[in-house]
Every structure is written in C-alpha cells, then in structure tokens.
Amino acid sequence: MVTTQGEPVLHGSPYRADCPTRHILDRIGDRWTVLIVGALWDGSARFSELRRRIEGISQKMLTQTLRGLERDGLVSRTVHPEVPVRVEYALTEAGSSLREPLSALQEWAIAHLGQVSASQEDYDHADQPPATSTNHDT
Amino acid sequence: MVTTQGEPVLHGSPYRADCPTRHILDRIGDRWTVLIVGALWDGSARFSELRRRIEGISQKMLTQTLRGLERDGLVSRTVHPEVPVRVEYALTEAGSSLREPLSALQEWAIAHLGQVSASQEDYDHADQPPATSTNHDT
DNA sequence: CCGAATCCTCAGCGATACTG
DNA sequence: CAGTATCGCTGAGGATTCGG
C-alpha cells in the first residue's frame, strides 16, 4: 500500500481517510492483492502454483500479501502436514464477493483504456511543457 | 501509485502487469486520486477549494494528482484569466463514469468492513505470533 | 516445499521556499 | 491564488539467505 499510518488525523473533512472506501483501497490498492485474488478465482492453489500463476511476484510479497488477505478473512490458508509440507490457498466467501466490484472496475478499465491512453498522448504532445521537467505520470 | 515501470517484463503469465485492470489500479490506487474524484462529485471546484475539501492533502500532491487525472482525461482544468488567477477543476464524462465502479467498491467496503475488522482481531489474537515481529498490515 | 529474516534501493510524499 | 522546484524522510518491496 502507500502508507496508511502517517495520517495527521483530520477532523471534519468530508473525505477523511477513515472512510471504508479509502480503507479498502489502501488494502487492495497495492501492487499484488488484486492479482492474487484474480489468480484464486481459478480455484485454490498452492504457494508455488500461485507464484507461477502470477510470476512477476517475489516470494516475499506473495507471502506478505497472502498474510494480509488471510488476516482480512478474504483468503483461507490450509496446511497439509505431509512430508514435504503442502499449503493450499483459497478465496473465502468474502474474498469471492470481491469479484463483483472488481469486475466492475475491470470493465471500466477495459472500456476506457483506449480513451485514457489517447488523452495521455494528447496531453504529452502539447507544446507547453514548462521547460525543465517532463514530469507527467504520478 | 506504487511503481508501475520497474516491471521486469513478463511473457506468458495470465496475470500480467499490462492488463487494463492492473493499469487502472496503479492509476487510482494511490493515496489521493479517489479522494479527489470523490470531492469533485460534488461539482467543480477551484484549487484552494479542493484543498479544503480534502484537507489532509499537501499542495504538492494535489497538483500532482490533478495533473495525472487531467492527463488521463478524467478531470478538466479551466483557467479563468482574471486578476487573481482562478482555476476550476471538474470531472469530465470519463471521470464521472468512474463513479459507478467506485461506488460498487464503496458498497462492498461498507458491507464487509465489519467482517474484515473482526477477522483481523481474530487473526491478531491468535497465539502463534512467531516471536520477533508484530508484522500485520501491509 | 513453504516461509521467515536481513539488507538495500528507490520512489512517494510531506515541508519548505520561491515565481507569476 | 495557483502553482513549481528542492530536500529529506520513510517504507514498499526485490534479492538473497537460512530454517523446518
């Protein structure tokens, strides 16, 4: 996530950091959470399998993000005490329910990506880059 | 956003970083974008007004995030060349259309926040904190 | 095979100061 | 009022290594 705790604590602003949406975005706004949830839509998977499914993820972040999801009750973790330990991860009901709003976002993304990209091109090719910096993007 | 460009470039993974959803999440996953969009649901506003509406935001991040949104074509920026310069920000059509999926997320957040918090409590009160670290949260 | 611990880099973001 | 430029801190997160 981005930071989450450095908040100076506000008072009466209508867009405070403690609104549920903000909270959830802090939770799923990181690089990997959504990808893991997406990977688990295909069914439960073991640690290594998840690593392969997502591939760009490091072992550390996979573990860390899975722990977060488990803590939130969105993902279940089942240890099979076999000889080489086997661990299965799966979406819980709550985790599965995330699919709805996430799909909405996904559809928006698909529907608007072209337009957004075009707008970016347009913006970047404008002729008033105030000298010094090419500081587009966040 | 989180990083977005350090990607090692993958090849055949089904959850590549270049999927539209991932892209959009990188865009709106930062600390302020969603808050600004939310603040503009109430109608257009000037720079200072936005600062007041959001309040926790620094001048730098407000400018930076607004630039990003403008670049993406989600927010329009209108300069009124009056004596003290006046600048109005407003959502574009595309920006407004974000309200739908964002509301879906919001509703999910509201519906599940309690459950998630409870799960966290539960998780944290488990009796196997492997010593050293209290490393919950992302 | 699953994961924890350590190290280190780099970029998000706030604070501050300066322009038009 | 509406920015832009610079500096410094902090923490996300990749690489690597060790344990069960």
Automatic annotation (TrEMBL), chains A, B:
<feature type="domain" description="HTH hxlR-type">
    <location>
        <begin position="19"/>
        <end position="117"/>
    </location>
</feature>
<dbReference type="InterPro" id="IPR036388">
    <property type="entry name" value="WH-like_DNA-bd_sf"/>
</dbReference>
<keyword id="KW-0804">Transcription</keyword>
<keyword id="KW-0805">Transcription regulation</keyword>
<dbReference type="InterPro" id="IPR036390">
    <property type="entry name" value="WH_DNA-bd_sf"/>
</dbReference>
<dbReference type="InterPro" id="IPR002577">
    <property type="entry name" value="HTH_HxlR"/>
</dbReference>
<keyword id="KW-0238">DNA-binding</keyword>
<feature type="region of interest" description="Disordered">
    <location>
        <begin position="119"/>
        <end position="138"/>
    </location>
</feature>
<dbReference type="Pfam" id="PF01638">
    <property type="entry name" value="HxlR"/>
</dbReference>
<protein>
    <submittedName>
        <fullName>Helix-turn-helix domain-containing protein</fullName>
    </submittedName>
</protein>
